[in-house]
Amino acid sequence: MDQEVLVSIRGLQMDLQSDEDAIEIVTSGTYKKKNNKGFLLFDQYEEDQSLTKNVLTFDEKSMELTRRGGSQVHMSFFQNEKTLTNYGTPFGNILVGVDTRKIRIEETESQVHVAVDYALELNYEYLADCELTVDITPKAQART
Predict the structure, then answer these.
(1) CA–CA distance from 73 to each of 7, 63, 65, 76, 138 (Å)?
(2) Residue 124: inside a domain, yes or no?
(3) Which among 8, 62, 65, 82 is most buried, taking Cβ atoms within 10 Å?
(4) pTM, rounded to two decimals
């Protein structure tokens, strides 16, 4: 059964100069769990007001993010593995490398917390160390 949820996504990038860049998105979505795998669907409005549809799937050793809209990407995070994908933008494709160090999932009755620690490359060049955290809370829980 799909459950209406509140989604909080935080991303942190730390580059070689020790500069930190943080983003946070809070939106609503739907979540279900099937065969020990979590499925999160949510929409996101970009700066230009275009709509991006997102699907996030995860288990204890992997996470996959698919984005469709103004930009298109399917990123795969497998613990202790490096993956490559094309990030499609209106201006052309960018080759993205993701070297996943660790995936942590904590699940309680009132929240699911997913954290991924990884290194990010663009066109085979190291860009930053990153951490992505996703908190999923049932809407009924978020209101109380």
Answers:
(1) 20, 14, 8, 10, 27
(2) no
(3) 65
(4) 0.87
Residue 100 CA to residue 75 CA, distance in Å, equals 11
Question: Is residue 48 assigned to a domain?
Answer: yes
Coil, strand or helix at 35:
coil
pLDDT per residue as tens digits for the range 57-92 = 999 899 999 999 877 899 999 999 999 999 988 888
Query: Is residue 140's pLDDT more than 90?
Result: no
Q: How far apart are CA 114 and CA 78, in angstroms?
A: 13
- Kindly give the pairing relationship between strand 3-14 and strand 125-138: antiparallel
Which residue range forms the structural domain that includes residue 52?
A: 3-81+102-118+129-143
Question: In this structure, what CATH number is given to the domain that contains residue 66?
Answer: 2.40.128.20
Tell me the pLDDT band of 121, cut-offs 50, 70 and 90: very high
The helix (run of H) or strand (run of E) holding residue 80 is none
